[in-house]
Amino acid sequence: MIFAIRPQPGLQSTLQAARDLNMAVLGRPLFEVVPVAWDAPDASEFDALLLGSANAIRHGGAALEGLLTLPVHAVGEATAIAAREAGFTVAQTGVGGLQALVDAADGDTHFLRLAGSEHVPLDLPDSAKVTTRIVYDVRALPLSGSDEVSLRASDPLVLLHSAAAARHFASECERRGLDKSRIALACIGPRVAQAAGSGWRDCQSAPQPDDAALLALARDMCH
């Protein structure tokens, strides 16, 4: 059995993508996303918005209205769609993570990055400057008794979408006394696989940081 543990609404997106591929994936969210109080800076101080997750739009609140003049550089298509629906103009949609977006910036660009409390560090080129505002937090939830039963009932494969998810799932497995050597992990990137640690039945990383590549990896690992 394949399990997805990411928070809603991203979980539903993953489950729908799996259904489109005729894959059976069970949703067991171990996280919830909550907004964080923040003050938006003056939009005139920046050249663009840098978004690594649609959660920045979903939980940014009314303060986003003052930033609508800034073009958005979005990490992927789901984030770009959320930005457009909120009234933003999307200048660039990435396929290989935020680092690639920053590296591709034209000239001297000052980005305003709207992020979660845990976010990927960036190696900035000389031509780019990034100011970060935290607008949401992802809170971990414990494995329930039914989750434990499901994970013990088979040799499961778990989809991991973030380093935080990897660390939390590993911690919960240890707390519940689950046998990690029976559990395989399909990770959205090498950083996530590294965060998961060792001792798993299998642990592999998708070649691209998106659901399509992750689900393709999971399907291969199951065969």
3D structure, described in words:
With 223 residues, the protein is an alpha/beta fold. The chain folds into two domains: 2-30 and 141-222, Rossmann fold (3-Layer(aba) Sandwich); 34-137, Rossmann fold (3-Layer(aba) Sandwich). It is 32% helix and 25% strand. It is built from eight helices and eleven strands. The strands form two sheets. A six-stranded mixed β-sheet has the order 3-8-7-4-5-6. The two termini are 12 Å apart.
What is the 3D shape? Answer: elongated
Mean pLDDT, as a whole number? Answer: 94
**What is the number of beta strands?**
11
Q: Could you give a short account of the major beta sheet?
A: 6 strands, mixed
Helix content: 25-40%
Beta-strand share of residues: 15-25%
CATH class of the largest domain: Alpha Beta
Based on secondary structure, the structural category is: alpha/beta
- The number of distinct structural domains comes to 2
**End-to-end distance, in Å?**
12 Å
Order of helices and strands: EHEEEHEHEHEEHEHEHEH
What is the CA-based Rg, rounded?
18 Å
Characteristics:
223 residues; alpha/beta; Rossmann fold; six-stranded mixed β-sheet; 11 strands
SSE layout and pairing:
Blueprint: E1 2-4, H1 10-20, E2 25-27, E3 31-35, E4 48-51, H2 55-58, E5 72-74, H3 77-85, E6 90-93, H4 98-103, E7 109-116, E8 128-140, H5 145-152, E9 157-160, H6 163-176, E10 184-187, H7 190-196, E11 202-205, H8 211-222
Parallel strand pairs: 1-2, 1-9, 4-5, 4-7, 5-6, 7-8, 9-10, 10-11
Antiparallel strand pairs: 3-8
Helix pairs in contact: 6-7
